[in-house]
Amino acid sequence: MRFSTVFPWTCAAVGAGLALGTIEIAGMGGRLTVLESRPADDPARVAALERQVVDLSTSLGTSFAAITELSRASSRHRELGRGLSDLESDLRETACRLDEQREWFGRLTILEAEAGPRAIEERIAEFANSVDARWREVGDLAARAQVMADAARADVLNVEREIEHDPDQLWHDLLGPTVQVSGEETVGSGVLLAGAMSATVSDPCTYVLTAWHVIRDRFTNPDAPTPEVPVTIYGPGKRLQTEIARLVDHDAYLDVALLRLETTRRIDVAVRLAPRERLGSVRVFERIYAVGCPLGNDPIPTWGEVSDVNHVVDGQSYWMVSAPTYIGNSGGGIFDAETRELLALFTKIYTHGTVRPMVVPHMGLATPMHVVYDWLDRVGYAALEPPRAEPRTAGAKK
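Above: the chain's sequence. Below: its structure in token form.
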């Protein structure tokens, strides 16, 4: 189908119109020249000539309008020709697709004629089985990939456990921050807290948190000057460092005391404090370490679990832990076994009997750190606490 022969008159008509317009313009120009060259005549003749000039001007305007319209018509015809050419191309492409469909249906008809409908169904079933087989292969590959991923995850967990139980790191997190605190006739434990800048805490010095009853006997004389409290810090390789601490504040009911080291030497270790959010989620069977200086020994860790999170003694609520503890553990720390964060401060050991009391080492009582944090807030040392999480607003998103 050739669209170039549909409108054979288009270009010729436009050309003829343009030629006629040119000839007519040329004729009118000659007539105007002749009229202008003639000498002046009588008024009637002049008026007649002016009318002729007006008529010629009108004819000239009409000719220009005709030429413009012919040009527009020519442009529209060219645009139409391009559209018809594109349509012809689309029709040819459609015809090719119809031929392919016709050929496919022809092969299907031949197959049906030669083998019958059952053969076609068998071919379809064969194709479906092939797809199912490939799908099963993909499923097997996915299952093997999952097994490999689980194995890799287990390897990663094993590596993390090995890192967590690295002796040097455990010493740094648990034993290094544990100190021995000496009373007049008693020996107990304490934990090192890193200082912080605040209105009350004017310098980032090192503090010691301990149990009040460990150092209580040093403060029996109210008229004596503020007594010194010896604190022994244990370094790697059993290297000892003895420092002097001063009492900052205490609470006899809570059995807690805060000391400040009077030293210019740098202390490189401090406990990692558990945030309040973590403390609120502690439950029975949580695994913990109890670390202290029982019977005047160097810091010793023992392993156990949280046995109770609300054991009330004399109106005060404590956590009970099953990690073995003895006399001298008081003031030491109860640490999360995984994160090694300080969860509580060991306060009391259980004893049985009155005449010759027997220590029950697996029933120790500890003051949870959120109670200690509340006390630090009241006495102006909230800056020693870990930062609190920002409260979420109603429209906040993760």
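The radius of gyration is 52 Å.
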